[in-house]
């Protein structure tokens, strides 16, 4: 496989929705259990950080601390939901459960399967966001008018992190090794993407690094603007960054998985 | 139904299938035999259109396996060597979810699934998660799963491996029934006696090549003769056999003498050779298999 083959347009068909449906069916079996984390987690953070720590923090850019971190919590959930779905969970389905092997013996191709997995990963982000927004809105921490826009945006952000997770699934030698991208990429993003403190508190060079290479930075920017109800032109830059990187990584992840699985 | 010409598969530098050619006719039951690592699974996976052909041509239903995988796969049922049932679902759900991959309308699928559960006798396990099924039940469920799209061609890679005789016989019985209904069946197996009884034609593979092809009886006839006389191994006996130019093989402290007329050899041995014990029996596919592929252990 030459380098440019990794960015070739894969032959994905609408049959990938069957894979999405399969994953949805499994999700629905434990629906009560699956809804709990996105419901509980933001509450814990909000209470501990927003209302606990927040009492010792001055307002940030004139915004109370709880209101500052609320959109970040949604962004983090977008990241976690699809990244973990398409890394650990996809790996389990691929390697341990042989689900992909079973499906590609039907009219579906491996491209369909991976596309279905990515779509499902993004859907997990949407589900989490949809559960979180009313909870956070109940505390009056986000602008209700614009916050509904966060839901479709969560799909785009979810796709981005789904593709990132899937790329790691394609290269990881075993399931334990997925811990490394989590430790070296996901966790730093959790902390240094303008989530719990503004990016401009960091040295300038790290700020540029975050803007160039940490996808969560852009997701936080967009969701925070929507949460505040203030739309600025600079969002366009974040949006374009997300769309371009997402498109590249989607192609890359599908082609990498194809190379890994089709021998 | 399936036409392969010069079919070849490389994994990096390793040649797993080395330019084999074969034709499988509609409605026949065709067996692939061979020791571990012979290239049977690799061949099956190319027929299933899940593993790309390195070179040569492979046509299934008159369609090329590389250019028409979706069409071919929609007409084919597959029982893979390794169980890959969906552990997240029950027996019934496994079949329903699988039907969906074939775009079978829900109501039609429900009917078909009931029928198939009955066919493999798993109706009372319908709500069991697949993890808690026994090995035989898993295999039966995979057979049912391979039939949800009413395939014209069924590919089975060691369908009965590791099963007890009851489960094995049941699967073979079902295959016979399918064949009777016009389904073309292609399988690999280690149970040579069963292949001998069931397959119309077979090939024996080793090191990625086809060694022989034909009906079980013709293959036996051609490569070992119809009968085998087993005798204890003495140097004098071998000398005696050499004098007569008999075809034989030494296996540890046994000698297998291949013949079309066991009685004649037996008489010769008792009269002319120093022999203590011997017995005659009809030759089987297993004798052909061992003769062609050797007795050395593989993998
Ligand atoms: N995915 C693979 N990668 C590399 N080598 C493989 C792969 N699959 C099979 N092989 C090799 O190809 C040869 C044929 O294997 P296989 O078709 O599984 O044999 P059989 O099914 O007859 O036991 C073996 O040497 C095996 O090690
Ligand atoms: Mg095999």
Helix count, DSSP H or I runs of 4 or more residues of chain A: 10
Query: SSE order of chain B in H/E notation?
Result: EEEHEEHEHHHEHEHEEHEHEEHEH
Q: What top-tier CATH class of the largest domain in chain B fits best?
A: Alpha Beta
Residue share in helices of chain A?
over 70%
| Tally of contiguous helical segments of chain B | 11
Q: Within the CATH hierarchy, at the fold level, what is the topology of the largest domain in chain B?
A: Rossmann fold
Any guess at the CATH architecture of the largest domain in chain B?
3-Layer(aba) Sandwich
Q: What is the residue-mean pLDDT of chain A, rounded to a whole number?
A: 93
Order of helices and strands of chain A: HHHHHHHHHH
Quantity of strands of chain A, as a count? 0
Output the structural class of chain A: mainly alpha
Instruction: Please tell me how large the radius of gyration of chain B is.
Output: 22 Å
Strand content of chain B: 25-35%
- Topology, number of strands of chain B: 14
Please mark out the parts of chain A with pLDDT under 50 across 5 or more consecutive residues, or reply none.
none
- Major β-sheet annotation of chain A: none
Fraction in beta strands of chain A: under 5%
End-to-end separation of chain B in angstroms reads 33 Å
What can you see in these coordinates?
- The complex is a heterodimer of chains A (263) and B (299).
- Chain A has helices spanning 16-29, 31-52, 65-96, 99-104, 110-138, 144-171, 179-192, 204-213, 215-228, 234-261.
- Chain A is an all-alpha fold.
- Chain A has one domain.
- In chain A, α6 (144-171) packs parallel to α10 and α9 crosses α10.
- In chain B, β1 and β2 (14-24) form a beta hairpin.
- In chain B, α3 (91-101) crosses α4 (106-119).
- Chain B has helices at residues 40-47, 69-74, 91-101, 106-119, 135-146, 165-180, 192-198, 216-223, 235-244, 262-272, 285-293, and strands at residues 2-11, 14-24, 29-33, 55-60, 63-64, 76-79, 153-157, 184-188, 201-206, 209-214, 227-232, 247-251, 254-259, 278-282.
- The radius of gyration of chain B is 22 Å and the shape is elongated.
- In chain B, the strands form 3 sheets. Chain B has a 6-stranded mixed sheet, sandwiched between helices.
- With 299 residues, chain B is an alpha/beta fold.
- Chain A binds chain B through residues 13, 15, 18, 21-22, 25-26, 29, 97-99, 101-109, 262-263, and chain B through 11, 48, 50-52, 69-71, 73-74, 78, 80, 82-89, 93, 97-98, 100-103, 149.
- The complex binds adenosine-5'-diphosphate and magnesium ion (MG).
